[in-house]
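Sequence in, structure out. Go.
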Amino acid sequence: MTELASKKWAKALIELTQEDESISKESVLSELKDIAETFDSSPELSDVINNPSISTEEKQIVICKLFQDKVMPIVYNFLFALNLKKRLNLIKDISNEFEKELEELKNIVRVDITSAIDLSDERKTEIRNKVAEKLQKDVRVEWGVNPDIIAGLIFNINDTVVDNSIKNKLDKLTEKIIKG
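Output:
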């Protein structure tokens, strides 16, 4: 439920930034992340934001004191809207969803690639380029190593897993043999 709400708020904010070309989406993202970090780093502030017994008016005063003239007007007004709808607690999730929306606009995709061994930089570049060509997107890769996969690669792209590991192939072969 909160993931859906966060996506909706992030999409709404992206749409607002698209209406005014002078607004830097990257700056909005940076400010959202800073605000989320501010909330996370202060247990007292986090308690205020997450406490349903504290009125929206009182929270509005806190927002004014902390962020007035320190963030862009669009971000400041966005915080007010979140507060009025009792969604300030979603700021971190909204900033993450905003970042995903921004990457989609820029034709960027994040890919997690796991290998059995640490690959050379040359090999990583080669794999990254092939994935980018296949997806026809700018690819940002997070590399991982898991010796348990024996050999091959596992790709995780937008929650879709493509497992080309030897371990996976052996598991499937074993399953076929057992089933007869």
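Check: The beta strands are 108-115, 138-145, 153-157, 160-163. The CA atoms of residues 82 and 88 lie 5 Å apart.
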